[in-house]
Write a structure and sequence with these properties.
The protein is α+β, with helices and mostly antiparallel strands. The protein has helices spanning 22-29, 85-92, 102-113, 133-139, 150-161, and strands at residues 2-7, 10-15, 48-51, 54-57, 70-72. A hairpin with a 2-residue loop joins strand 1 and strand 2. Helix 2 packs across helix 5 (150-161). Residues 1-77 form the 2Fe-2S ferredoxin-type domain.
């Protein structure tokens, strides 16, 4: 099937198998290897990208389902020559160890910062809560880190949220 999409601001027209995941399209066909294939079941978050500004597990999204969408990977997060504020904060706070989950963590955090509303740990669901460490941990719970860098990841995101 022929699809068109914007990937990191660049228009792309590709012919894909209807069964191809967005992750495989990005990595194997477009050479964007930032998003990682961790579990390939949507459980680890290593493949997280932004689809039309919302975070999504690219291993679960079919490429044909994102026809006409705008996809942002970690390679396009900064949008220029410098680093995205989250990337700078991750470096400053040493928010990674092996780095395998880092692209997914960064994309998920970027999407999370734009998501209003309560979460499962919000005390008053009628107000938009502050992004406390508990809120950040809850909202990032779909992104796993095998090395356990969670404390520094939360610190980095907290800095950018302020």
């Amino acid at each position: 099937m022929d699809i068109t999409l914007q990937v990191n601001g660049v228009p792309r027209a590709v012919d894909v198998d209807p069964r191809m995941s967005l992750l495989d399209l990005l990595r194997e066909r477009l050479g964007l290897i930032g998003a990682k294939k961790g579990c390939d079941h949507g459980q680890c978050g290593a493949c997280t990208v932004l689809i039309d500004g919302r975070r999504a597990n690219s291993c679960l999204a079919l490429a044909v389902a994102v026809d006409g969408s705008e996809v942002t990977t970690v390679e396009g997060l900064a949008g220029g020559d410098g680093l995205h504020p989250l990337q700078e904060a991750f470096i400053e706070h040493d928010a990674f160890q092996c780095g395998y989950c880092t692209p997914g963590q960064l994309c998920s955090a970027a999407g999370m910062l734009g998501e209003p509303g309560p979460s499962a740990v919000t005390d008053d669901v009628l107000v938009d809560p502050d992004l406390t460490p508990a809120e950040i941990r809850e909202r990032m719970s779909g992104n796993l880190c095998r090395c356990g860098a969670y404390v520094n990841i939360v610190s980095a995101i907290s800095e950018v949220a302020r």
